[in-house]
């Protein structure tokens, strides 16, 4: 039986967190990646609206600078070793090019919060809730969503803006996140839930 739960929605100043929308994950040319144009397009749609409203936007990437970083994680998944600072794989997908005021936070583990400056940055921006998108639903997205809740942010996941190599894992994790950790909504519903331009200006 499912737990009784309550939709929390978004606050007055949500941030858009694009998790690992990098070339290494959005391109099948990389052993870690898969072509996912629909997910990229959904992220582009959200990115455009957040920028229009002047709401905070932040990206993450995965970069390994030396052999000791995330050693066990990389021992399990050897292809992670291609994510070196000088590789194209760690760059944000050019279809979602960050603007100058949109940080790209490097991480080494699944969660965007673990051993990064993300929470500090969100606090400096006055963020009160998160829209989490990206890759993959069953991996870094889920880990980030759980940690978002554990940092006391209401979290919303737009279902079309996240993706996974395994469709069954994608659906199972959307179900599980919605049951416990986040509100899973359509992109259109997320767009309609965002504050108006006037409300966003008042919160800035």
UniProtKB/TrEMBL annotation:
Entries under PANTHER family matching the protein: ISOCHORISMATASE HYDROLASE (PTHR43540:SF1), PEROXYUREIDOACRYLATE/UREIDOACRYLATE AMIDOHYDROLASE-RELATED (PTHR43540)
Record's protein name: Isochorismatase
Keywords associated with the record: Hydrolase
Organism: Microbulbifer agarilyticus
Superkingdom to which the source organism belongs: Bacteria
Gene3D superfamilies registered for this protein in UniProt: Isochorismatase-like
GO MF term list: hydrolase activity
Location of the Isochorismatase-like domain: 15-189
Keyword Ribosomal protein attributed: no
């Amino acid at each position: 039986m499912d737990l009784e739960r309550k939709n929390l929605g978004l606050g007055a100043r949500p941030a858009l967190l694009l998790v690992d929308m990098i070339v290494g994950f959005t391109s099948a040319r990389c052993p870690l990646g898969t072509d996912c144009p629909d997910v990229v397009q959904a992220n582009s749609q959200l990115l455009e609206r957040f920028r229009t409203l002047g709401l905070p936007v932040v990206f993450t990437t995965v970069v390994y600078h030396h052999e000791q970083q995330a050693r066990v994680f990389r021992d399990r998944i050897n292809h992670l070793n291609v994510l070196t600072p000088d590789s194209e794989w760690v760059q944000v997908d050019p279809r979602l090019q960050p603007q100058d005021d949109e940080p790209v936070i490097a991480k080494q583990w699944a969660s965007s919060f673990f051993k990064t400056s993300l929470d500090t940055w969100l606090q400096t921006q006055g963020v009160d809730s998160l829209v989490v998108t990206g890759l993959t639903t069953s991996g870094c997205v889920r880990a980030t969503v759980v940690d978002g809740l554990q940092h006391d942010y209401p979290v919303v996941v737009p279902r079309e803006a996240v993706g996974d190599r395994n469709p069954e894992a994608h659906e199972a994790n959307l179900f599980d996140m919605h049951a416990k950790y986040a509100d899973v909504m359509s992109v259109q519903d997320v767009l309609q839930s965002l504050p108006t331009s006037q409300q966003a200006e008042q919160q800035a």
